[in-house]
Amino acid sequence: MHRLRLASLLIPAALVFAPSPARAEDGPYRPVETNRRNGVVLGASGGVGFAGASGYPNNAKLIGDPAYYSESPLLVGWSSSWFLMGALSDYVSVGPLLNIATFDTPSWKSTGWALGFRGEVFPLVGVARKVGVDWLADTAAYGQVGFGTTELRAKGPYPSADGAQSFVGLGVHQEFRLFRMLGGHAAAGPHIEYDVIRSEPAERHWLTVGLRLAWYGGHTTGDRSR
Question: Partner of 39 at 20 to 30 A CA spacing, among 19, 150, 191, 223?
Answer without folding.
Answer: 191
